[in-house]
């Protein structure tokens, strides 16, 4: 009988506040979808950083007779200068063991021909115009400035190139988008919290006489709160399921079908990251339902 009463009370509550319940579902749907997208954006940025930062090498290009770097004097780098440069690189605490690779003019020219094999520019460039270089692998890609500073001014060094100078602006932009998505999601979650509180407050106020009678006949607080709690949880679960479905559809069509096929060099979020995000979304949705319901109905439990 108690279960029948609770389910009956739940049905009455949903009918009385149908429009408000739909508004709660839509608000939770949108807010959790954006929240889940922000979670995946964070994971994507971390995957990109891990994928590229571990592969980043510092390229130290040596002087040719046509180089204009500050370490050049209008002449080819000498053997003594190359040995000194290599010594500085290998003695750096940031250089990974066996992380120094030399590239001769011939090797650079062969690589150049592979990269531009379909371009007419290949016929205009000779091996002698190529630059010798050192490729340096770091122990920690985050700590690259020390080595760059140590070798940049050495005699025989033309330029020092580090991919971080190109990747960092990209990751900063992605982090900015991620923060923006989290802020927008947070505002929508607050709106959903207020929407649920208002819905439960209106439902409790409309049934305040019934609540008073139940309290007088000895009904427990939890028994009185349960219909309101179920109403909020049901709305939150529907919104969370719709949000999770939206996230999965977005990942499948945007990431798996488009991005992974178009940009194969990147590592993209997949089913594991999406599943983790959806679990967090469901938990957040339930918290949004349970917490305001208990707080809002407490004031109506006193007769």
TrEMBL record:
Location in the cell reads: Cell membrane
Q: Where are the transmembrane segments?
A: 20-41, 181-205, 226-255, 275-295
Q: How does it sit in the membrane?
A: Multi-pass membrane protein
Which InterPro entries does this UniProt record tie to the protein? ABC3_permease_C, FtsX, FtsX_actino, FtsX_ECD
Start and end residues of each FtsX extracellular domain: 56-160
Residues in domain ABC3 transporter permease C-terminal?
183-302
- Print the keywords alphabetically: Cell cycle, Cell division, Cell membrane, Membrane, Transmembrane, Transmembrane helix
Q: Does the keyword DNA-binding apply?
A: no
Q: What are the record's GO terms for cellular component?
A: plasma membrane
Key word Transmembrane present in the record? yes
Gene3D superfamilies in UniProt: 3.30.70.3040
State any GO BP term from the record: cell division
Location (main, coarse): membrane
Q: Which Pfam families match?
A: FtsX (PF02687), FtsX_ECD (PF18075)
Q: What does this protein do?
A: Part of the ABC transporter FtsEX involved in cellular division.
The UniProt entry's sequence similarity note says: Belongs to the ABC-4 integral membrane protein family. FtsX subfamily.
Spell out the subunit comment: Forms a membrane-associated complex with FtsE.
Q: Which PANTHER family match?
A: CELL DIVISION PROTEIN FTSX
- Family matches, as NCBIfam families: FtsX_actino
- Its protein name is Cell division protein FtsX
Report the source organism. Kribbella flavida (strain DSM 17836 / JCM 10339 / NBRC 14399)
